[in-house]
Every structure is written in C-alpha cells, then in structure tokens.
C-alpha cells in the first residue's frame, strides 16, 4: 500500500520506532521521543534517525517515521541516509592521512599539481579545507549541469574558470567547490579514487559498517529515499531530483551513512584514532585569516558555541536528505540527527535534544554504568 504524506494515520502508527538502546530511564526516553516526534511533525519530515553518545558509547539510538513512503518502511538506527556536507569531515581526514603519509602538506600550493590562474597562485590545501580560498560556494549553473557526467579533468577545468570572490586567506567563505577540488587532489596524489581510501583507512578501521560513497546503482540494504516539499502544493512530498553518477561521488559530501556509522565515527574521533595527535589538533584549530582574525571553522568542522556550550559540529543537505552532528566536549556528549527531507532542520532538533539531555534529570540517567574496570574516554 502506498503511504502518502497526506495519510497521517499511516505515519502516526510509526511515530516512534522501538529500536532504542536501553540506557536511560524510560521517562527520559519518553520525553526525548516526544520531542523528536513533535519536531518531525512540525517540520513535515517523513523519517528521522537520532543518536545520543556519551564518551565513546551510544547510550540511545532511535528511529522515527518512515524511510520510504512508497513501501511504508520505518526508520531504524541502521537506516542509510545521505550525509550531505557532514561528509566533509571524512574528506578532511582523508587529506590529513596523506599529510601523515608525507605525500602532501597542508601549506602546499595548488600550483604544485595544477596549472592555476594567476589569482590562485597562493591558494593552498589548507585554504580549501578551511573555506578561506576565496572560492564561490558552488559551481555557477551556467558552467555545470548536475544531470550530466563529468571527468575529473573536466571538473577541475570548470572550477579553475570560476572567478575568486576574495583573495586567498582574506575571509571565510563556505565553498563546496573547494572540497570538490580536494577530492580531485586526493584522487591524483593518492593514486586512486578517494572513496577507496576512505573505505580502507577510515570506514573499515572505525567499524562504520555501512558507510560508503553514494552509488545509486548499487543494492544497498536499508537505504532511505530522499524527499522535498512541493513548492506549489503545501504539504505534498516529492522524490528528490536525479543527479548524475559522477556528481554523486564528489568529495563535498557524497556519502551513504547511518546514525550507527556516525556514532562509530564519533568514537574514533574522540579517541584520536587514524591520525597523529598533532594532526587532530590542527583539525580543531580555528582557521587564521591573513589579518590574524580567526574563523569559526577548522578542517571540516565548525568550531563555535551553542550558548555557553562549546561544540564541534557540521550540517549537510543533499538530494532530499539533511544531517547534523554536534560534539560538545565539555559535556562529553554528542548528538546526531539524520532526516530524509530537503527542507528539514536537523540542527534545530539536535540542539533541542542536547538541551533535554543535559538537563539535571537526563544527566543523572546518563551516568555511565559501573563496570569492573571503567574506561575513561580520551579527548582530542
């Protein structure tokens, strides 16, 4: 039976999926479920997956709503969403792995590998990673068609035609183009597709069992569908628009990932896996501009505060999916949200959940269980 969004009774029956790790008091879980369901209905999101992590362990994982409206499939923690720009963290770590291997330096100029325009002569790898290269946010529509396939050399040639909006290092300007270029650089310097590097040296070692670069032609179990709201008919959902295979493999955030994968990723980052400590430190240093000012961004992470709470976080939006993951080091807490709606606001839900979890009652409920030899989580 087709379960359209207008048939609210069908969704209401699946408002709160039963897949949750029993670590908190039921009253707290009920409050969190209610909060999630309230926000899901308010935002008209078909399905949501949420994780709450303390230390290196997920203490609560939850699915709400539907992963696929055509088939009435409910969201579970194992449901596969698309990362959107949240995946820029993986690209940043892939670059740092090549730095660790001695194959490149963060301060290498792009002119070391490519013939670049005169305005790009001082542009470095670090500029791309920190969004300080002076690049526009996206390829201009007149230059690039997302329904067409492009080779690496074509994507590079088109990027080099885009005028800079600022001198490299002069200001912070979010740029997907910069991370597309980082993927092209990873392919060239690493000698293979950057997705293979991520699979072998990031996803597999960290136990991210289902994470992979997007492939619409592959058989992917538990894959959710992405949706968008019809601008002409309020409340009506449509499937996301088709994107060509090559444009679904770029390094600005083209990753299949579950909330379980993100919890495993969070644990690896917390314990400083994969990279030397000095490289992790650089990842979480705020970018320095030419005039000495600091930007609220490191290497693939936003670095700011939610009120009085310091945090490292990122959001994403792509093909009918939205995502957000926030790590609050002072609270030893992480919260992640995945949604299958282009207009969804996972950060809003995530911040509300953080506030709920860090209330006095939730802190009591989330105290680590006593073990014979308690392990203290490492911090980066």
Automatic annotation (TrEMBL):
InterPro entries: AmpC-like, Beta-lactam-related, Beta-lactam/transpept-like
Entry keyword annotation includes Hydrolase: yes
Enzyme class: hydrolase
Record EC number: 3.1.1.103
Keyword line: Hydrolase
Gene3D superfamilies per record: DD-peptidase/beta-lactamase superfamily (3.40.710.10)
PANTHER family, per database record: BETA-LACTAMASE-RELATED DOMAIN-CONTAINING PROTEIN (PTHR46825:SF9), D-ALANYL-D-ALANINE-CARBOXYPEPTIDASE/ENDOPEPTIDASE AMPH (PTHR46825)
Descriptive protein name: Serine hydrolase domain-containing protein
Keyword check for Hydrolase: yes
Beta-lactamase-related domain: residues covered: 33-353
Molecular-function annotations in GO: hydrolase activity
Coiled coil: none
């Amino acid at each position: 039976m087709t379960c359209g969004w207008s048939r609210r009774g069908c969704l209401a029956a699946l408002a709160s999926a039963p897949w949750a790790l029993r670590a908190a008091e039921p009253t707290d879980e009920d409050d969190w479920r209610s909060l999630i369901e309230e926000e899901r209905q308010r935002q008209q999101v078909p399905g949501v997956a949420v994780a709450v992590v303390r230390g290196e362990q997920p203490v609560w994982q939850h699915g709400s709503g539907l992963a696929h409206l055509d088939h009435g499939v409910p969201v579970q923690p194992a449901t596969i969403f698309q990362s959107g720009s949240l995946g820029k963290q993986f690209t940043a770590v892939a670059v740092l792995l090549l730095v660790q291997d001695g194959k490149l330096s963060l301060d290498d100029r792009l002119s070391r590998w490519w013939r670049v325009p005169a305005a790009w002569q001082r542009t470095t790898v670090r500029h791309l990673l920190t969004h300080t290269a002076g690049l526009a946010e996206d390829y201009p529509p007149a230059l690039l068609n997302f329904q067409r396939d492009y080779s690496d050399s074509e994507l590079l040639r088109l990027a080099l035609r885009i005028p800079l909006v600022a001198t490299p290092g002069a200001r912070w300007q979010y740029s997907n183009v910069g991370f597309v270029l980082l993927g092209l650089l990873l392919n060239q310097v690493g000698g293979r597709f950057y997705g293979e590097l991520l699979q072998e040296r990031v996803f597999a070692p960290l136990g991210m069992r289902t994470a992979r670069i997007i492939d619409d032609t592959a058989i992917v179990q538990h894959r959710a569908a992405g949706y968008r709201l019809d601008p002409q008919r309020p409340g009506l959902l449509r499937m996301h628009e088709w994107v060509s295979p090559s444009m679904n493999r770029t390094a600005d955030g083209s990753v299949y990932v579950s909330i379980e994968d993100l919890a495993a990723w969070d644990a690896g980052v917390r314990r400083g896996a994969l990279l030397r400590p000095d490289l992790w430190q650089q990842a979480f240093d705020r970018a320095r501009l030419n005039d000495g000012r600091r930007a609220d961004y490191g290497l693939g992470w936003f670095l700011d505060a939610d009120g009085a709470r310091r945090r490292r976080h990122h959001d994403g939006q792509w093909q009918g999916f939205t995502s957000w993951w926030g790590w609050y080091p002072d609270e030893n807490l992480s919260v992640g949200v995945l949604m299958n709606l282009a207009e969804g606001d996972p950060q809003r839900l995530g911040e509300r959940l953080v506030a709920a979890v860090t209330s006095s009652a939730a802190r009591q409920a989330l105290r680590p269980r006593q073990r014979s030899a308690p392990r203290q989580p490492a911090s980066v």
